[in-house]
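U., I forgot to send this yesterday:
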Amino acid sequence: MKKIPNPIANLKSHTEYNFKVAKIEKILEKFSILIEKNKNSFDNAIKKDAKTNNQKIEFDRIINIVKNYKKDMPILPFFTSKTIKDGFGNIAVMYNGDPYVTLKMLISALRTHNNVVFFTNNFKTLNDLLIESINIVTKELNYTERIAVLQTNFSKNDIIKKQNCFNLLVYIGSKRDFQAVNKQLNIPSVFRGYGFIDIFIEDKSFKDTLLDIDDFAYENNIKVNYFHDTDILQTIDYINKYNLNDCFAVFTKNSDLAYKFINSIKAKNIFINTNPFINYEFDLNENQLVYTKNISMKI
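Result:
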């Protein structure tokens, strides 16, 4: 019988190191500097991964994510005699390997006092470089030896069998796939429907916009589920039954049809005759990565 390795074997418990806001801010600052200093290494990693991945990755965008990532948001964990707000501990991330998602999850894990294990077979070179870069800084600043690990040799069943190694699962992708995994979980989970979108086309005169959507989806490794020449009610029932994604677009000049979708579709974001990718970015509410203990006691 195949023995499944412990995915968190190289991670310390997050309770073994001190979480201080000033240190986290310093880590992020040095992380940004380290990436800029190693532009050649990142460019080479991007070129290497481009041979096996269609998604277009830009070094400047990586730098901007690190520099601008939610600077106005407070770092969440805090500890008082009455309240403890802290990270879960070990987070498993299942996704398509998008390096921008990797980077944002790394920063969020650091900011919320969590460890993170990424499960993906895509963008191995770049993802490994991003993860090792932040681990270098956390070790150098005496925070912890590493907060993140990349797992590239695995199956979904492996993750389910080893789920008790984790305190939280973050699933990024198709909700239909997430629902199949979630049925087998006994740990908390968070879903983010990024990288998948549903589009209903009733009027093909929006050709230019639809071509722009195709181009963006191809360059960013996004799966588009097109619905055209299909029954409207069946389409609505199908999408709502599986609640496939958080993003839905419809192209039609029939206002009654547009409002039918607006009122009936269960989706976080709905677009009518507009390109849904104008400001399409992965984001995750960091409050989902922490828990709160309210303490009341008499001693």
